[in-house]
Specification:
With 336 residues, this protein is of the alpha/beta class. The protein contains eleven helices and twelve strands.
């Protein structure tokens, strides 16, 4: 297949290009001028220089492509001005999907986030993971990133309802190789390896190998039902932060932090951090949006993707081992 990939230099995008290469598909990768392409090292792709908000820079490159994967997004939990984020995530999505439809792409896969899935009820013990059918509303979009992705997902669903061959995928918390930035989830591992994590919050995430997420995109193009969305996560990946840190300790031989920060303390510290950031322009180390999200255990059930797409289920422990190896081999943390 001829494939068009936006956001190819990002964590998920680079792993998607790798998996497309491995299956003999041809890739055209939309990259901004000056994009950091470290995550794409050693991969085969045709570069298209452009911007998702400017269809004139990529509309011609979309012609002849069978599949379009719109992975690009502005992912920030704090910005001095959020307007560019909405322009990229919402209007950029509209323009890419419309351009792919006009170019005749047979399947368009839009990368959303589990942030657009309803959260588990915190009153339940144990926490019951939610799925694609869990009710959610715009009111639950507690920060600008989630809100912009929620609005973008509505654009994708509206176009699908009008006949566009759009399938939506909602990755949970991917980890693994090629996390060049690194992402906020990858930074948890890097901070642990650098001994820069003295304490933790009582939260939880659904961990999934980034390779499985990349494969989930390809499977969505092959088997996904138009207009449907699929959680790309792991059925056994719902771990508390304490479980996560204990696993990292087992894999590395390094001690896990023992001090759990009370939520109120973390919230107050984030408020102060963001107040300082408004004056300095430097991003806060602990954005308020991240602290607010950490109040919930973000546990999800990927059964639909496993059943309908055949989503692979690499053990989360292996995903952490692969991430640790990649970070160490690429100079993000001390060697073993």
């Amino acid at each position: 297949m001829n494939c068009f990939v936006t956001g190819a230099s990002g964590f998920i995008g680079a792993n998607l290009v790798q998996e497309l290469n491995a299956r003999g598909h041809r890739v055209r990768a939309l990259l901004r001028s000056g994009a950091d392409t470290r995550a794409l090292a050693g991969l085969d792709y045709e570069r298209v220089t452009g911007d998702v908000t400017q269809p004139e820079t990529y509309a011609e490159a979309l012609r002849g492509c069978d599949w379009c994967f719109h992975v690009a997004a502005s992912y920030h939990l704090w910005l001095p001005d959020y307007r560019p984020m909405y322009e990229t995530n919402v209007e950029g999505t509209r323009r890419v999907l419309q351009a792919a439809l006009a170019a005749g792409c047979r399947r368009i896969v839009y990368t959303s986030t589990v942030g657009c899935i309803g959260l588990p009820d915190p009153a339940l013990n144990p926490v019951v993971p939610t799925d694609e059918s869990t009710p959610v509303s715009a009111a639950q979009m507690s920060n600008h990133y989630k809100r912009s992705k929620w609005q973008a997902e509505q654009v994708a669903r509206e176009l699908a309802a009008q006949g566009a061959p759009v399938v939506i995928v909602n990755p949970s918390a991917p980890i693994g190789p090629r996390d060049a930035k690194p992402t906020p989830t990858g930074k948890i591992i890097v901070d642990f390896l650098r001994r820069q994590m003295p304490a933790y919050l009582d939260t939880g995430l659904n961990w999934v190998h980034v390779r499985d997420v990349a494969m989930g995109h390809i499977l969505a193009a092959e088997k996904g039902h138009v207009g449907e969305r699929y959680i790309l996560g792991h059925a056994e990946g719902n771990w508390t932060m304490r479980q996560t840190l204990e696993t990292l300790a087992q894999l590395t031989g390094l001690p896990a932090p023992r001090w759990q920060i009370p939520y109120a303390v973390a919230y107050l510290a984030a408020c102060v951090d963001e107040t300082v950031a408004r004056f300095t322009g430097r991003p806060p180390r602990a954005p308020l949006a991240g602290v607010r999200m950490a109040r919930y255990k973000m546990f999800f059930n990927p059964a639909k993707a496993i059943r309908e797409l055949g989503l692979p289920q690499t053990p989360p422990r292996q995903a952490f081992a692969d991430a640790i190896e990649w970070f160490r081999n690429n100079g993000y943390a001390p060697a073993k």
